[in-house]
Design a protein that fits this description.
This protein is an alpha/beta fold. It folds into two domains: 37-69 and 328-435, Aspartate Aminotransferase, domain 1, CATH 3.90.1150; 71-325, Aspartate Aminotransferase, domain 2, CATH 3.40.640. The protein is 36% helix and 14% strand. The strands form three sheets. It has a seven-stranded mixed beta sheet, sandwiched between helices. Strands 1-2-3-13 form a four-stranded mixed beta sheet. A three-stranded antiparallel beta sheet has the order 11-12-14, with helices on one face. The structure holds 4'-deoxy-4'-aminopyridoxal-5'-phosphate.
Length: 436
């Protein structure tokens, strides 16, 4: 029996009659019996059409950092909606949101808003190419930078065993419909191996426009950068005149107010932000410093968007950044996340299951393997079946992470101590059940 109750099943049938597979984004499709239809979200909870309540660790794949329907954000958005949302001109709300963004992320000299992470990375890649006059982009295996053609290679959906030698990896196209020639502009390497990056740059550094990197692997368990890795990328980019892009779509405004730059102390040339900066509203930014970001101002490198900086999006960003700037949400995420990470580790040890809890309190992953993973290739040693069984058991107990361990648990600041305790009980029971 799947996860759908009677009413949810009826709603899913209606969804499927109109939306392809019943969803508007393929990652949301869990099969015909397990794809839920959601009625509403409230703080740390989501409710399906049968009224079942789940403690939500998907948080919309990361954006909902404050909790669903946060009153300050909802009010700011309602006011913005009533004041007209789309103008062919800059709006005051947009200016205010940009000021708030820059005080939160002080390394940034200037930015432009857009609506999705995909648009943000697409523009960042274009800007880097336009600025350097080079075509090639280096990305790392298991990282996801959105759905546009230029970055859909060796993402977390690709089988690690098909990626070839780590010395000369095969960039695996993650979708049909991408012209083959695009693959000639991409290089892929395992994360956390600076020697390989140096080798590649010695060979062809003068052709590489940008390194685009998720500073921690937000689409592969939450694997952390080893000491020196991001610093090394910075150094190589400086040496070869390559643009360093931090894709902070998942880490930005989540792992700290200043994002990965604040946590890891390495400053990129460009950063892409989305998700947690709008607590679930479609708002994103391409931010940067120095000559690189100012290259737009000198013309010739196209960037545009009818809805970029629209009133609802920037109102959501402004209100979310205000709440995050109090520091309270981060204190809550830290406390809840630490308790969960430690609790999961302890329960696994008690039950004799070898596991590694990786990442940071606001977004962490659980890996069932003997060795802790350093890069995406190590996901081949993870017991995917066990993880999927555990998550299904948790969902039946009212606690909902994504069923694929590559997608970290995302916490929101609305989680109570009681939610955390309920979660650990559900994990304990579901793990015992799955092991039996
Ligand atoms: N970059 C990263 C690191 C992401 O995780 C995602 C989405 N999960 C994207 C870019 C694309 O964002 P969007 O889905 O808003 O297009």
């Amino acid at each position: 029996m799947g996860l759908q109750g009677e009413k949810t099943a009826t709603w899913f049938a209606r969804a499927k009659a109109n939306l392809v597979n019943g969803v508007s984004s393929q990652f949301r499709y869990w099969g015909d019996e397990d794809t839920l239809v959601i009625d509403r979200g409230e703080g740390a909870y989501v409710y399906d059409m049968d009224g079942n309540r789940y403690i939500d660790y998907q948080c919309g794949f990361g954006p909902v950092v404050l909790g669903h329907g946060h009153p300050d954000v909802a009010q700011a958005v309602a006011e913005a909606a009533a004041a007209g949302t789309t103008f062919a001109m800059t709006s005051a709300r947009e200016v205010v949101a940009a000021e708030k963004f820059r005080s939160a992320v002080p390394w940034v000299d200037a930015l432009r808003f857009t609506n999705t992470g995909t648009e943000a990375t697409m523009h960042a890649v274009r800007l880097a190419r336009g600025f350097t006059g080079r075509d090639v982009i280096l990305k790392f295996e298991g990282q996801y930078h959105g759905v546009h053609d230029y970055v859909m290679f060796s993402t977390a959906g690709s089988p690690p065993t098909a990626m070839g030698s780590r010395y000369r990896p095969v960039p695996l196209q993650s979708s049909s419909g991408i012209p083959h020639v695009i693959s000639t502009f991409i290089r892929t390497l395992p994360f956390n191996d600076l020697d390989l990056v140096e080798r590649l740059f010695r060979d062809q550094g003068h052709t590489i426009a940008a390194i685009i990197v998720e500073p921690m692997l937000g689409n592969a368990f939450g694997i952390m950068p080893e000491k020196g890795f991001l610093e090394g990328l910075r150094k190589i980019c400086d040496q070869y005149g390559t643009v360093l892009i931090f894709d902070e779509v998942k880490t930005g405004f989540r792992i700290a107010l200043g994002g990965a730059q604040e946590v890891f102390g390495v400053t990129p040339d460009l950063g892409t932000f989305a998700k947690s900066m709008g607590n679930g509203f479609p708002v994103a930014a391409i931010a940067g410093r120095g000559e690189v970001i100012q290259a737009w101002g000198r013309g010739g490198i196209a960037q545009a968007g009818t809805y970029s900086g629209n009133g609802v999006a920037v109102a959501a960003a402004g209100a979310t950044i205000d709440v995050l700037s109090t520091g309270e949400p981060y204190a809550r995420l830290e406390k809840a996340g630490k308790t969960l990470m430690e609790g999961v580790g302890r329960i696994c040890a008690e039950q004799g299951v070898t596991a590694h809890v990786v990442g940071v309190p606001a977004m962490f992953g659980i890996v069932f393997s003997d060795e802790p993973p350093k890069d995406f290739r190590d996901s081949a040693h993870h017991n995917d079946q066990l993880y999927g069984d555990v998550v299904m058991g948790m969902i039946r107990r009212g606690v909902m992470p994504v069923d694929d361990a590559l997608e970290p648990w995302f916490l929101c600041a609305a989680l109570t101590d009681e939610d955390v305790a309920t979660t650990l009980t559900a994990f304990d029971e579901a793990l015992a059940e799955a092991m039996a």
